[in-house]
Amino acid sequence: DQQVKQNSPSLSVQEGRISILNCDYTNSMFDYFLWYKKYPAEGPTFLISISSIKDKNEDGRFTVFLNKSAKHLSLHIVPSQPGDSAVYFCAASASGGSNYKLTFGKGTLLTVNP
Amino acid sequence: DADVTQTPRNRITKTGKRIMLECSQTKGHDRMYWYRQDPGLGLRLIYYSFDVKDINKGEISDGYSVSRQAQAKFSLSLESAIPNQTALYFCATSDSGEVGSYNEQFFGPGTRLTVL
Question: With 80 as the cut, is the pLDDT of residue B2 above it?
Fold first, then answer.
């Protein structure tokens, strides 16, 4: 049973436009969410996170929105740049004793066209 | 210099061979993890270690074993490799932090393993 779902395997956008990557989760114990970015031949790198006590977190061009009632989060990239082309993984964690464990989605390949 | 390093970066081996993948970190983190990534499946946790004497199975530990030789070193072994263990393997580290908090995991560059 997949607890973190990224239903779009790929997304293509034009440079300068907004990229919106979506993620849904089913486990109501999840209370911390992260986005990782992965380039080919490299490991995932942390991009941005959000705690369940917030509904928005912003870092430069990247904003993550959390809708707890819908168990949905999204990553907005504005404006998108060709260097943003990568696979983006959504991940979730439950705080407390099991806060080590990250549950990942399958990833979304973002392509930003010049 | 990279904070989390993995060796080898690429390995091709044959069914039945024993393989060891190594991970070293200079971040001073207590916790280390091994994940595998398969196409279209995201990352799945194989083993994790909270310190040198604390090693735990993850969700897909069958066919794998680990060794935490020191705080900075965490090795993954495939005792008898099989073709469906062909995958990308990532090591990660994190700080221990406080109960109830969350600490970001930092990943190594990965090892691409092919089992023929």
Answer: no
Is the CB of B36 inside 8 Å of chain A's CB atoms? no
Q: Which residues in chain A are closer than 8 Å to B4, comparing Cβ atoms? A: 43
Query: From its phi and psi, is residue B40 left (phi > 0), alpha (psi between -120 and 50) or beta?
Result: left
Which tens digits make up the pLDDT trace of B60-93?
A: 999 999 999 999 999 999 999 999 999 999 999 9
Residues B26-63: pLDDT tens digits?
Answer: 999 999 999 999 987 889 999 999 889 999 999 899 99
Angstrom distance (rounded) from CA B39 to CA B12: 18
- Give the integer Cα–Cα distance in Å for B52 and B70: 6
Interface test with A, best of B31, B33, B54, B102 (most A CBs within 10 A): B102
C-beta of residue B34 within 8 angstroms of C-beta of residue B43: no
Closest listed residue to residue B54, CA positions, set B24, B76, B33: B33
Comparing C-alpha atoms, which of A94, A86, A80, A78 is closest to residue A34?
A94
Number of other CB atoms surrounding residue B21 within 10 Å: 23
Specify the residue for token string 């941005």.
A48
Q: Within 13 Å, how many C-alpha atoms sit on residue B92's CB side?
A: 30
